[in-house]
Every structure is written in structure tokens, then in C-alpha cells.
Design brief:
Helix content: 10-25%
Organism: Piaya cayana (Common squirrel cuckoo)
Keywords: Phosphoprotein
Pfam families: hSH3
Protein name: PRAM protein
Number of helices: 1
Strand content: 15-25%
């Protein structure tokens, strides 16, 4: 990873923490794949756009219906 890529990832993490009021370090609990049979959903606001078969990093289980995740583009 180059210096420029490292700085870009650090900025993405800071933006994430600010947007979701997340304190502390970001630890990935597990990874999951979006169901390949699911319909694709557009993101908006704080919702992540979902694509079939996409791998997501699970950061926090907020409740039974919502999970705090990020995709490969660190969104």
C-alpha cells in the first residue's frame, strides 16, 4: 500500500467515525456476503448500496434489523 492510499483510508475512517458518531477504533467483527439472490438496493443517507454477492465488513451489530458495515470502498 502506498502512502497516498494509506492517507486516503485514514480519511475514510475519520469520515466514517464522524458520520456515525462511532468512538474508538474500528474493528471488523466478521465479514459477510450479500445474498446473490437479493435485489440490488440504492443507498441513501446512511444506508449502504447493496450489490449481489458483495463482501461487507461487519463493524457493529446495532439491533436485529440493522448492522453497521462497510464495503470494499470503505463506505
Amino acid at each position: 500500500m502506498t502512502f497516498k492510499e494509506c492517507k486516503k483510508e485514514e480519511k475514510a475512517d475519520r469520515d466514517f467515525q464522524k458520520k456515525f458518531k462511532f468512538e474508538g477504533s474500528i474493528n471488523v467483527l466478521t465479514r459477510m456476503m450479500v445474498d446473490p439472490a437479493a435485489t440490488e438496493k440504492r443507498g441513501g443517507g446512511k444506508n449502504l448500496p447493496l450489490r449481489r454477492g458483495e463482501i461487507l465488513d461487519v463493524i457493529q451489530f446495532t439491533n436485529q434489523e440493522q448492522i453497521l458495515c462497510r464495503n470494499s470502498q470503505r463506505r
